Amino acid sequence: MPILRSTLIALSHNRPLRRFFENSRLGARLNSRFIAGTKLEDALRVAEAVNRQGIAVTLDSLGESVTSSTEAHRAADVYHRLLDSIAGSRSSANISVKLTQMGVEQSPDLAESIVAGLAEHAHATGSFVRVDMEESRLTQITLDIVRRIHARAALRGAVGVVIQAYLYRSHSDVEQLIAEGIRVRLCKGAYDEPLEIAFPRKSQVDVNFLQLGKMLIDSRIYHAIATHDESLVAALKAHAAARAIDPARFEFQMLYGVRRDLQRRLINEGYNVRVYVPFGTEWYPYFMRRLAERPANLLFLARNFFRS
Ligand code: FDA
């Protein structure tokens, strides 16, 4: 399975395949399980439906690795419109952004000023900006940018970051982020990283996830536990209960289209749940990472392919 995972992640960077799928009717049919739609209105409609079930959302305008500052500003404009729509509709929603979409590869300063602008807007409208974590070459710069924005008194608490349990460094990153009061989303990690820097085995990643999750919950800062792994969810619920930590002090997060049964169960049990809702035309890399996480999804893909 690790080979299939690596292959699918490698294919997520394949430009001809990306062009083909993003522009074909077949692609639109395949992506509908994981993507809300191509337009901002689609995302808002899904957000409303998810909110009606008592589940909050974080909205992701799909796109990564822009090639110019103009594209980065255009991507940021979509998020500004989203923040206005969230405020206007009083949705229980915030936004998730990727630094490669905000131009970090063109200029880290550009990405920082764009994300700071989004954090200001989010702060003014009672929302929040989560900076997703991408490949390990961007881990340090992502943490640095989030730290500097969080350190501005007027933006404290308006921005948070993501930590990947597969990285060895994450333990010390979590310690530092907790000390600084920065909100963390903990996930396992969706990219292909070398064993010099990341745990190669799933069982090791799971052990680290549990340990980091406990540290985050114990901190009593409002963090997010992002996983569909039922045994980790159960272990962290038990940990919080044993320490009498109010379930309102943290949230579970899951991806749109994945484990809706578990999302509903957690809501019924009184936990906070937020679903990550992606939308937009540039959906191919995101979609391929979802296949890599669970190669059984290829069967679902094949069924739709042969039905076309
Ligand atoms: P694991 O992969 O062990 O799966 C546990 C079970 O969940 C599976 O057995 C299956 O039942 C179900 N499942 C998991 N993935 C599925 C899928 N794609 N389709 C169907 N079922 C699936 N990563 C990253 O590197 N940077 C980031 O910023 C984020 N952000 C993020 C936000 C949110 C809200 C979530 C939930 C996840 C992320 N991720 C991420 C992705 C994360 O790193 C990881 O790749 C996936 O969550 C899959 O890992 P699980 O923790 O679900 O466990």
What topology emerges from the helices and strands here?
Elements: H1 2-11, H2 15-22, H3 25-31, H4 40-52, E1 56-61, H5 69-89, E2 93-97, H6 108-124, E3 129-131, H7 139-151, E4 159-164, H8 170-180, E5 183-187, H9 202-219, E6 223-226, H10 230-242, E7 250-255, H11 260-268, E8 272-279, H12 284-293, H13 297-307
Parallel strand pairs: 1-2, 1-8, 2-3, 3-4, 4-5, 5-6, 6-7, 7-8
The structure holds dihydroflavine-adenine dinucleotide.
Mean pLDDT: 94
At CATH level 2, the architecture is Alpha-Beta Barrel
Total domains, how many? 1
Task: List bound small molecules.
Answer: dihydroflavine-adenine dinucleotide
Largest sheet composition: 8 strands, parallel, barrel
Strand line-up in the sheet with most strands:
1-2-3-4-5-6-7-8
The end-to-end span amounts to 27 Å
Rg for CA atoms: 18 Å
Q: How many DSSP H or I helices?
A: 13
Number of strands: 8
Structural class: alpha/beta
Uncertain parts: none
Gross morphology is globular
* CATH topology category name: TIM Barrel
Helix content: 40-55%
SSE order, one letter for each helix or strand: HHHHEHEHEHEHEHEHEHEHH
The percent range for strand residues is 5-15%
**Assembly state here?**
single chain
What does this molecule look like?
The protein is an alpha/beta fold and 308 residues long. The chain has a single domain (36-282), classed as TIM Barrel, CATH 3.20.20.220. The protein is 52% helix and 14% strand. The chain has 13 helices and eight strands. The protein has helices at residues 2-11, 15-22, 25-31, 40-52, 69-89, 108-124, 139-151, 170-180, 202-219, 230-242, 260-268, 284-293, 297-307, and strands at 56-61, 93-97, 129-131, 159-164, 183-187, 223-226, 250-255, 272-279. It has an eight-stranded parallel beta barrel, surrounded by seven helices. Dihydroflavine-adenine dinucleotide binds at residues 132-133, 162, 164, 187-191, 226-229, 253-255, 258-259, 276, 290, 293-294, 297.
